[in-house]
Specification:
249 residues, alpha+beta, Fumarylacetoacetate hydrolase, domain 2, eight-stranded mixed sheet, 6 helices, 13 strands, 31% strand
Amino acid sequence: MDQATVDAFWDARQRGEFFPTAFFDTLSIEQAYDVQLALIDRRVAAGEQHIGWKVGLTSVAIQQQFAVHEPVFGCILNTVPSGHVFAPADTIQPGFENELCMRIARDLPAIVSLDEARAAVDAVYPSLEIIETRGPFTAQLALALADNAQQKTVVRGAPVSLPAELESIEAVVTVNGQEVGRGLGSAVLGNPLHSIVWLAKKLAERGRHIRAGDIVMTGSFTRQFPIAPGDRIHVAFSGIGDVETAMTV
């Protein structure tokens, strides 16, 4: 990706324009990833920390919701603990997804088997990905990827050891005490570990890799839900634990 394009995206971001209109319908998905990673490198150089990766659009429910047919990746730069309360001013058109977040104990090569991915995970967290809709996501997917795939932050519960069976883990999602959805681990590419396998290969194509100590958000068990002021969000993952967050009025 040429430096002028990266500079234009960086300058737009500084003035609060996350989907620069000059680039509508101009970038390929691969070019969008080039922009994303270049912008993340600049943010790290400015003092932020790149602590892991997200794999998104992994479940049929999410793919149908956003009319896409393959996963995507983004970068994680921060997390907050379960119970964190957001203010409305903290986020831009926020939403959340319910996911398992996995901590990786060793560097991973480009080609990883499911068993090798499992062996590399030293902890799993019940988690929420907090996303922001900072522009026309479905109409401009490439720009959404350039803008780090909607990522805002990750809410993590207490870590546990990786269970033997991930496909049958059930997530039950409640908002303000009312159940709004539930899904199984099998909804995430058949098994959430497949997200690690996919990510390792995808990053290698771009000269990157999953590093020891990285966390990987593996994808939502259900569709994405919006967050409104006053909402209290709770997700229970069977055999894993709970995670919750809220937003003030």
